[in-house]
Every structure is written in C-alpha cells, then in structure tokens.
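Annex B. Sample input.
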Amino acid sequence: MNGKFVNNSTSSTRKIFVILGLMLLFLLATSSAFAMKVPQGMDRCPSLDVCLQLLDKVVPANDDGEGSNSEVLAKDLLRFGDAAKRELLRRAVGTHPGWRNVASAILSEWPTWDASDVPALRKALRMDPGGWLARPLGRIATPEAIEALVEDLPRGENNQTDFALEQLGARAIPYLFPLLKNDKSAASASRVISAMNPFPVSYAAEWVAIASNPDQKIEERIAALRGIAALGPNAKPACANLHALLAAPESGIRREAGLALHAVHDPSVIVELAQHCQPKAEPFESIALDSLLCLRDIADFGTDGHEAGRYLLPFLDSKNGGERASGILTLGLIGYKDASPQIEAALKSPDWRIVNAAVWSLGWLGDRNVIEQLDGMASSYWLPDVRQNAARSAKTIRSSVGHLDTAEWKQMENGRLRDPFGFVVEGTSLRGPACKSDHWNWKGQSFKLSRPVGYASSLRFRRDPMFGELVGTDHGEWGGQLAWLPTKGKPEILVRDNVHGIQYESDDSVGAIAFFGLAHMSFDFGYALKLSLSEEGSWKIEEIARLPGEPVATTTIGPGLYAVKANGYVVVLSSKDGIIGLAACAANQ
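Annex B, continued. Sample output.
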C-alpha cells in the first residue's frame, strides 16, 4: 500500500472557517429571497394562454434556481394536457433564463412522460446541466433516458441528475460503469453509486471477479475496484480476494485495491491508516481537523480496527483537548481495552470534552473499574450532559449486557446519522435553562453579565513591566485574534481566534483572562486562557477552562473568579482551579 491511499488533509482550522463562510455567502447570494409564486387565479384560468400570462407576471428575469410550488403549478396546468407540456418544454429551451428554470421546475412534477419525450428532455438538460428535467428522465428510465442522465452527470455534482440516477439504483449501474474507467468522470459515478438506496450490492462479487482477473483490461479492473469502493462496507463480504491485489505488479491496481479495501473497512489496511494518523494539533487549535478526519475514518471500522489501537495511544497524551478527546472516542469505538487505564485517568481532566469522551469510551469498553467513579460524576459533575452520560454508562456496565452498544451511533437522529465526535466541535447538546431576569447567583452573590460591544475588546496595563494594551477582535467565521500592543517594542499576536472578552486577573499587574470561541454552522466551542507577562516581557499562556459553547457574556465576580455564559449556562471559573460550577438564575431580581 505504501501510504498511497491514505487521505492526508492539510487544511487549517482558519481555512475551514473561511471556506464555510464563503459557502454560506454563496448560498445566500444564489438563493431566491422568495418562493416561486403561484399567481392568484391559476387554479381557474379558462385557457392555457391566460394561465401563462398570469405566470409571465411572476417569472423572474433570471434563473434563480427556485423550484418551490412547482407541484402546485403543475397541477394547475395539468388540465390542459399535452399542449401545456409541449409549451413548457418549448420555454425550457428558450431564451428567457427565468422561464427556462420555472418551466423546467414545473415539468419536474409533471406526471405523464414516455420514451418519445426523451429527445426534448435531453436537449433541455444539455442547456441546464444537473437541472430539474433530470427527474422526468429518471422516471422514463429507458436506456436512452438513462444515457442522457449519464451523459450529463460529469458536469456537476449533488444535483437533480445525481438524484435521478440514485433513484434508478442497480438499473443505472451498466451505464455508470464506463465512467469509472476515466479518472475525470470516476468521482461523479462513484458519488452516485455510494448514495443509492438500496445499495446495488449484487454487483460486488462481479466486480471482485473482474478486478481479480489478470486477463481483463486494466481499465476494466480499475473501474471494478472503484465500483467496489463506492459500495463501501456493504461490499465487504465479497472482498476477501482483493488482498492479493495489494501485491499486484500494476501500480494502478495496487493503489485502487488499497482504496477499495479502505472503503469497505477491511482490517488489512488498518495498521497503515493508524500509522499515518498521529497527533499534530497545536494546544489551542480550536478544531484539530486532520486528526478528527483520520480518527473518524478509523472509528468507522469498529472492532475490525482493533489493531490500530496501539498506534493511536499517542493521542492520549496530546496537548490539544479536542484531539485527545477524539482519540479516546476512537479507542473505545474500536474496542481497544488495553487503553482502559489511561482512559480511566482522563476522567479527571479539567476539559469536559475529554471527560465526556472517556465516559462514553469506558462505557463501550465495559470497564467495571469505573462504575463507582461514574456514579459520583452522575450526581455531581458540573455539566448536565456529562452527568447524564455517566449515569447511562454506569447503568449499562452493571447490566447483563455489560457495555454500551456502539451500533447506536449508526442510527438516524434528526435526519442525520448520530455522530460520536459531534460534541468535540459542536459543544454541549443540552442547553442551559432560560433566565428571564438575566441576573445570576453564585454562593449568595448576585451579578449580571456584560456582552461585548462591537467586534473588539481591550485591556490596558500601566504598571511595570506591563505597559501596553491587550486587544482582541472577533470576526466570526473569518477569525479573530488577541494581540499585545506594548508601549515600547513590537506588537505581538498571542492567539489567533475570536476574542469574546478580556478581564483582569486578580489585579491589573498580574495578567488577564481572555475568552475565545465561535458558534457558526455546526461549530460551537469556547475556552478561557490565562495570560501572564514575565519580567522579561514574554507571555505565558495556559488554558484554564473549556466552555460548553461560544462565550457570549462575561464578568468578574471576585478576585480571580469569573462568570461566563455559554450555550445557556453561566459557568463560574477560577484562574487557579478552572471551572468550579454553574451559577443559578436569580429569578426574583
């Protein structure tokens, strides 16, 4: 294998935020502000011409991609039969961009199609690759219709053509297979095959036979291996014979065989995957993306990935909390019990993500040594998520089953697969209770929180040796930074992340507590750093608290004592001891 099929990501967290921000802006820029309108009277207009005149008034000048209400409009026009269909087809290939989209969207809901319509639909799809008229072609499903869809497929991705071919399932495979031979079109065909439901697993054995036959043309064998990879773990039972191809004389066969075995989660590749998956994140890096990707990949092997465990042990010593938590989760999901003592020690971490990961991992491993410790956490840990999970793990370990079932992470929740790694970057799943008074109590002391004003915050120091100013910025998904601007000397960027507040630490000659984080799309994280300036003028930076989400308001409530609101909770933390509890709502204020 020689590492050639290992996916090594080099994207930084900042790049990911920028990309996600651009994606969001793109979606906002290209989405219609309003749904496609249904003109008043469409359901009772006396003739097709009158109906089309009504539509003329609401069809936009440009193609905005909007397709809502197309089903309603199709029903309104269906009473005019083939005449309406022909006119809409004419407009779908016309010179008016807005009408091309609207006509195509309506026709995508048209119920009556036959093979004679394929040429017209094919012409329209060529003018709008991946557009609405892929759907009727998928319903016609003649060889000519499927050929038209496959012809269109390499032009785009995740569009209506994808959807139509996915719905055809195994019927489309003979037409997609030739695309797998070509490096430029293989990704499109693989994408569609991997999304078919049900999976066309009946082809797995046939493709293994083609790939294993040295008398077949090499492009046929490579296409077969790519098809197997697209089927993923569903093809695993048929893939035992592929192991021999890892030593094939042809480099292309060796590479594609490795990729296929990787995709089907065959244990033969797990050691190399683990050797390439090592901790590398900086201590305060918000999302250890490279590690997260490779650890998720290994975790998907389940217990078939057991042999990776000894290579993943360095993650237990990572200085990055998210990276360490992801490593702990992976070791539990692959059933690597030899790591249990080190995972047990992680229950004492000040980072709630590491603790939560250990709670789950020890539950999957069925570690009876921690039952009493889990019981204690279930009643006293500061974060409700962790209390709840600790109680569940303890109860299940005590039961006749003896361990948590990892299979539940493959179940759907809120329309998507549950993600055991989600909380590492998404924050706590439970939100704190609402507090209408917005006043809080901590051991008899009542206080309010202050929210940042604008995109910057600062803290000024006027005592030797700290002459200067700490300045923090928050630009959301575009990133921020904390900088030291000394009265004398060069400015210095201390941390590259969004700053949500800065407070003096004890007194203004000692240092500061700075709060960082971001809540954007699927990311929601926060943390507090303690910053101290030495007499030599260098800053010492240490994390004192990992928050349950982005900090939105902060205050100092005593010497070295702070409160910060994140994900609905008001967390109380000490500059010496980290998080010491949650403040309660002062309802009577």
